[in-house]
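Posted in: Protein Modeling Q&A

I'm a second-year student putting together a small comparison for a lab meeting, and my supervisor asked me to include a predicted structure for Peptide ABC transporter substrate-binding protein. I've never done this before, so apologies if this is the wrong subforum. The sequence is pasted below exactly as I got it from our records. If anyone can share the structure token output, I'd also love a short note on what stands out.
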Amino acid sequence: MDPLLEVKDLEIVLELKERSVYAVNSVSFDVRQGETIGLVGESGSGKSMTCRSILNLLPGTKSKTVKGSVQFEGRDLLTLPKQEWQQVRGKQIGMILQDPTSSLDPVYRVGDQIVDTLRTHQKMSKKEAWERAIKLLQQVGIPSPEKRVSQYPHELSGGMRQRVMIALAISCNPKLLLADEPTTALDVTVQDQVLRLLKQLQRELGMGILLVTHNLGIVAEMCDRVVVLYAGKVMEIASVEQLFAAPKNMYTKGLIRSVPQLDSTGRLEGIPGSLPRMNQPLAGCPFRERCSLATEECADAEKTRLQEVSPGHWSACVHHERMCGF
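Accepted answer (user: helix_wrangler)
Welcome! Here is the predicted structure, written out as tokens:
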């Protein structure tokens, strides 16, 4: 099966007032129809930047450089003319942003915001779009949708606002859904409801999902494959089963060890150190200053390229074969 989305050698450099930021470095991965891919890493690893670049929604800095390709059904989105974006953004690719409070317009009813999206992308009368908005709210599990459709965002709970965001994202039956930390600021119960809803909608619509998160519990529950990012570089790509059973990158192993376990009695392990400065291109493994296995080889850009270490399992670690005892 051909990939629905194929990101290849993506590089993003932001030119800020006093420095350049090399935010994303040669990132490559793909998403297939009906598949959920997790984009994982700590804050500052380039997850959201990678996700937003797919829809040309990078922050409005004075200058930015984007290289590589983002192929969606055979079209390179990085070279897509401005006038063609309306046929892609919101229609073929939907997106759920981190914070529904700031993503929804506070001065418009939620129904009006859904209607506006529907009428922009589909030939519908206002009445038809309003009826469709009610059905969408019902589809995402909002009780009394006929009442909620006429309410303003501030009248809804955080969980309901996130469901409205999901309704907006799927309103045009997209082939691909980008979910950027979709459970941020939600309590655990509501978080579980939202994740179950996304899985249900994926089965109904057959869409691919790119899920951005730092929560490995969500990854284990939701994803088929995982892309691990660190300092803007792909460190590992594997199925969920491969990743948790036998990680092949020391950064991935550190992430897994730092997750609290119910049966753990010892001190919670963390990853010492912090992200490297990203004001210049990083040669070699960006994690080597924090890694207990680091050697001179780790500074070699060629030796730390992403390579397939077993069927379907890719790692950028020189010492992936030595990791069994660590």
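A couple of things worth pointing out for your meeting: Residues 247-326 form one domain. The radius of gyration is 21 Å.
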